[in-house]
Design goal:
With 208 residues, the protein is mainly alpha-helical. It has ten helices and no strands. Helix 1 packs across helix 2, helix 6 packs across helix 7 and helix 7 crosses helix 8.
């Protein structure tokens, strides 16, 4: 299931973004099943006929929304400089940025909406996962491998080590946020948890 190619003119690209913004509001507010093309047209401020100029049906429109979310996820949180060997500072900086990014209420709402339909629309779930969690894991693993090659770290399996670090960064925070259980963590809490994650990681993997 692939979205229609974006129109070439600036005006049409702007219209497409306008439609996707409206669709996003409706999908996140009502969920995929309850959302209708008429609801989306009203939220986007366009006619129902205009929707079908850009998207063939609701599935295609939802896919387009997920693609736009994928672009938003590629926001530099896990862009690493392999020549920066101050591993502690790098992990602290990226760990805090990661927790703040995944804790963004709009991003969490998008995840919930996609998870709700992922069983019957697995391609949509795959796209969001590959653009977010999988991309972050791969980028961090590559950085850890570079530091291992430089003799800074001693990591046998960089993918596992990267996953361990990411999981400990959001320990006690992501699941409560995902289930909308209480307020988001304070910056003080994020600093505290990520600090523990970094110290634990370095005790396990810093080269002797």
């Amino acid at each position: 299931m692939l979205s229609n190619p974006a129109p070439q003119t600036d005006e049409d690209n702007a219209k497409r973004r306008q439609i996707l913004d409206g669709a996003r509001r409706v999908f996140l507010d009502r969920g995929f099943d309850a959302a209708s093309m008429m609801d989306i047209a009203k939220a986007a401020g366009v006619s129902k006929g205009t929707l079908y100029v850009y998207f063939k049906d609701k599935d295609d429109l939802f896919d387009g929304m997920v693609c736009s979310e994928c672009i938003m996820q590629a926001d530099g949180v896990f862009d690493f400089d392999h020549n920066d060997h101050d591993v502690e500072a790098v992990l602290l900086r990226h760990g805090k940025a990661f927790v703040k990014a995944v804790g963004n209420p709009k991003r969490l709402s998008s995840w919930r909406t996609v998870i709700a339909v992922a069983e019957r629309m697995p391609e949509v779930g795959r796209k969001l996962y590959e653009a977010g969690p999988a991309r972050g894991l791969s980028s961090l693993a590559a950085y850890l491998q570079a530091q291992t090659d430089a003799g800074i770290l001693a990591v046998d399996d960089c993918e596992i080590a990267a996953a361990q670090f990411i999981e400990t960064c959001h320990a006690t925070m992501l699941k409560p946020m995902l289930f909308n259980f209480g307020p988001p963590p304070t910056q003080e809490r994020i600093d505290y948890v990520v600090g523990i994650a970094v110290r634990t990681f370095l005790r396990a993997y810093r080269a002797n």
